[in-house]
From TrEMBL, chain A:
It is found in: Cell inner membrane. It comes from the Bacteria. The gene is ccmB. Required for the export of heme to the periplasm for the biogenesis of c-type cytochromes. Pfam families: CcmB. This is Heme exporter protein B. Belongs to the CcmB/CycW/HelB family.
UniProtKB/TrEMBL annotation, chain B:
Its main location: membrane. It is found in: Cell inner membrane; Membrane. NCBIfam families: ccmC (TIGR01191). Residues 25-185 form the Cytochrome c assembly protein domain. The gene is ccmC. It is a multi-pass membrane protein. The chain crosses the membrane at residues 21-45, 57-84, 96-116, 128-147, 159-182, 202-222. This is Heme exporter protein C. Belongs to the CcmC/CycZ/HelC family. Required for the export of heme to the periplasm for the biogenesis of c-type cytochromes. It comes from the Bacteria. Keywords: Cell inner membrane, Cell membrane, Cytochrome c-type biogenesis, Membrane, Transmembrane, Transmembrane helix, Transport.
């Protein structure tokens, strides 16, 4: 069992900066670590689907190397999306979300805390797993570092953008496909620059520009997406 | 007093009564403009030097693409007005704009595909503008699907308005990134003919068609909004009265 106590150092500091943020971060991490199947499922999905790919397109190493960056990115995107459906669900069902909206702390930071935890348990492990999958799909050696870095930055944006969709659909009984439908088009820029960075790295070009754009997208998403998600939560809770 | 018209707009009844007078004029204007524009464009405008007659599809394609994009902003802005000033009518306009915009986006994509076959030799190309239009279609479909998922109209209105606003923030980013992606994956065989200046003999019928499409769009939007207003306000006295009169008129 990983300890949450190690977080107690940052929590008070974060609390001073943003009221309630540190406390929520701690609670969310604790909850997620107690339900570890929720962490494993997106990762298993990611690995399983990627293992099916050679069965579908054929095992030629050259072909796999060509499609690897795109396929790994698309699968990381789907894994994030599938895990996002439950982001606010249990909190909505047991009334916690309503309490959070009523609390004097800004909802922005509550959403940011939940999204940060979501990224820590899906985006980060996906990025850590990606070199292994690159190996299985014969990704050229030059692409590994960039794949890891682009997934690390990009998956955080995906978590933030997906949080808006999750907040909009939380009051619905079966939001799964609808969530995908409304969030997918918004994922396009992240996907383009993520795969673009890896492709540039493989072709031997500089890829810092693409990573910088991914970081810029993340900065914009961190500033705006929690605001939109907070608005969506208020709409869903008022329902 | 200057804001009186704005507050009046919040009243569905005022809107319904006022726009009933505009509708026939808008219908007439769009009918005349579209007839003149298409006869002029299809029959009298000269052939293109490179593309022959196949270029004539721009008389449908360009106005549809114009309004597909403008329609998203109309939808998002009316959604924002609804969220900020809690204006019921504004939400109705937003809900009416979504399917119209989706259809126009589809028309733009479809006519583009038909034009692509003789010009490029293939129906579908992952060109930057085509891809952006496809994503715009998905954004529209997302708003429509979200609206259908809620059983309560008020919640659906607010949720769709928020999604449309999020989409608006994203549209420039999506367009820029797709442009960048296209220059990276530039296909060797295809090049859009760069016509920096279009000949006036081709431009005036196109302009007529664009204005005609705007009239048609406004007419469709108002007609659809009126239907939604009737649906939403059917319990009120004025709607009951209106319907009773309509029935008597039909007899």
């Amino acid at each position: 069992m990983p300890s949450v106590e190690s977080l107690s150092g940052i929590a008070p500091a974060a609390s001073r900066a943003a009221p309630g943020f540190g406390a929520l971060l701690k609670v969310e991490l604790l909850l997620v670590l107690r339900k570890r199947a929720d962490i494993a499922n997106p990762l298993l999905f990611f690995v399983t689907v990627l293992a099916l790919l050679p069965l579908g397109v054929g095992p030629e190493p050259e072909l796999l190397a060509r499609v690897a960056p795109g396929i790994i990115w698309v699968m990381a995107l789907l894994a994030t999306l599938l895990s996002q459906e439950s982001l606010f669900r249990s909190d909505f069902e047991d009334g916690t979300l309503e309490q959070v909206t009523l609390s004097p702390q800004p909802l922005y930071f509550a959403v940011l805390a939940k999204t940060a935890v979501h990224w820590l348990v899906t985006g980060l492990p996906l990025a850590l797993l990606s070199p292994l999958l690159g190996l299985m799909l014969n990704l050229p050696a030059a692409g590994y570092l960039c794949l890891f870095a682009s997934l690390l930055l990009g998956s955080a944006s995906l978590s933030l953008i997906g949080a808006v969709g999750a907040a909009l659909t939380v009051a619905l009984r079966r939001p799964g496909l609808l969530l995908a439908l409304i969030v997918m088009p918004l994922y396009v820029p992240v996907l383009i620059f993520g795969t673009g960075a890896v492709q540039a790295a493989i072709d031997g070009y500089a890829y810092s520009a693409q990573l910088a754009i991914l970081a810029a997208l993340l900065a914009a998403a961190a500033a705006l997406a929690p605001l939109a998600a907070a608005g969506a939560i208020r709409i869903s809770v008022d329902n | 007093m200057a804001w009186q018209w704005f507050h009046r707009l919040g009243s569905p009844r005022w809107f319904y009564e006022r726009t009933g007078v505009w509708l026939p004029w808008l219908a007439l204007a769009s009918l005349v403009l579209l007839t003149v524009g298409s006869v002029w464009g299809l029959g009298f405008a000269p052939q293109d030097a490179k593309q022959g007659n196949s270029y004539r599809i721009i008389y449908i394609h360009v106005p549809a693409a114009f309004l597909a994009l403008a329609g998203y902003y109309i939808m998002a802005i009316s959604g924002a007005i609804g969220l900020i000033w809690k204006m019921k009518l504004s939400f109705a306009v937003m809900r009416a704009a979504a399917p119209i915009g989706a259809v126009l986006t589809f028309v733009a994509l479809f006519t583009g595909a038909i034009w692509g076959k003789p010009t490029w030799g293939t129906y579908w190309v992952w060109d930057a503008r085509i891809t952006s239009m496809l994503i715009l279609l998905f954004l529209y479909i997302g708003v429509i699907a979200l609206a259908r998922a809620f059983s309560r109209e008020q919640v659906a209105d607010k949720a769709c308005a928020l999604l449309a606003l999020v989409g608006t923030v994203n549209i420039p980013i999506i367009y820029k990134s797709v442009d960048w992606w296209f220059t990276l994956h530039q296909p060797a065989t295809i090049k859009l003919t760069q016509s920096s200046s279009i000949d006036p003999s081709m431009f005036y019928p196109l302009l007529t068609m664009i204005v005609g499409f705007y009239c048609l769009y406004t007419w469709t939007l108002i007609a659809h909004t009126r239907t939604l207003v009737l649906q939403r306000e059917w319990r009120t006295q004025w709607v009951q009265q209106e319907l009773a009169e309509g029935n008597r008129g039909g007899d």
